[in-house]
Amino acid sequence: MKLKMSENSLFAILLRKPWWISILIAIVASLAASVLFPRQYAAYGISAGFPFFVIGIIAAVKQWPAPDASAVANTREMVAAMSWRDFADALEAGYRRDGYDVKRREGGADFEVVKDGRKAVVSGKRWKAANTGVEPLRELVAAAESCGAHERLYITVGPLSENARRYADEQRIRVLREDALASLLRGMVRK
């Protein structure tokens, strides 16, 4: 049985926040506990912040390769000017560079990517859409179910409609927006 952290737990929320927030909570918790504990136990109070410190380190490691705002803006500008063929080639190259086996598909998903035995389907053909509705997400879910994929990824630089956002949450579709796209395509698109 694989253990999974609840998405709404304090630690899961902190993992999604900037790393320094967890470190700050660790410092405050340690100082508060060391002051509130009796003098002979004050040294043990310092350990109260240790779990938050660990979460801060994990978040920092995850956020370290995150692109800066200028890289995100540059990637958005570049991919908006690309044809589907060029964009698909850049996506495929980005996934291959990150160690995935990539297979192009037709239908509701454009790619099937596999790494460490985990299969994901990726839909990116409508990346330039001004607003994404539910239909392309339904097609992605159907493609994922037909091939037994573990994950569903939808790539867009535009917003999702409110219905599409709810559907993506219900169906556990990971929406790759500008920052994740900039990370995936780092070095693949140039001005």
TrEMBL record:
<protein>
    <recommendedName>
        <fullName>Restriction endonuclease type IV Mrr domain-containing protein</fullName>
    </recommendedName>
</protein>
<dbReference type="InterPro" id="IPR011335">
    <property type="entry name" value="Restrct_endonuc-II-like"/>
</dbReference>
<dbReference type="GO" id="GO:0015666">
    <property type="term" value="F:restriction endodeoxyribonuclease activity"/>
</dbReference>
<feature type="transmembrane region" description="Helical">
    <location>
        <begin position="43"/>
        <end position="61"/>
    </location>
</feature>
<dbReference type="GO" id="GO:0009307">
    <property type="term" value="P:DNA restriction-modification system"/>
</dbReference>
<dbReference type="InterPro" id="IPR007560">
    <property type="entry name" value="Restrct_endonuc_IV_Mrr"/>
</dbReference>
<keyword id="KW-0472">Membrane</keyword>
<keyword id="KW-1133">Transmembrane helix</keyword>
<feature type="domain" description="Restriction endonuclease type IV Mrr">
    <location>
        <begin position="80"/>
        <end position="185"/>
    </location>
</feature>
<dbReference type="InterPro" id="IPR011856">
    <property type="entry name" value="tRNA_endonuc-like_dom_sf"/>
</dbReference>
<dbReference type="Pfam" id="PF04471">
    <property type="entry name" value="Mrr_cat"/>
</dbReference>
<feature type="transmembrane region" description="Helical">
    <location>
        <begin position="20"/>
        <end position="37"/>
    </location>
</feature>
<keyword id="KW-0812">Transmembrane</keyword>
<dbReference type="GO" id="GO:0003677">
    <property type="term" value="F:DNA binding"/>
</dbReference>
<dbReference type="InterPro" id="IPR052906">
    <property type="entry name" value="Type_IV_Methyl-Rstrct_Enzyme"/>
</dbReference>
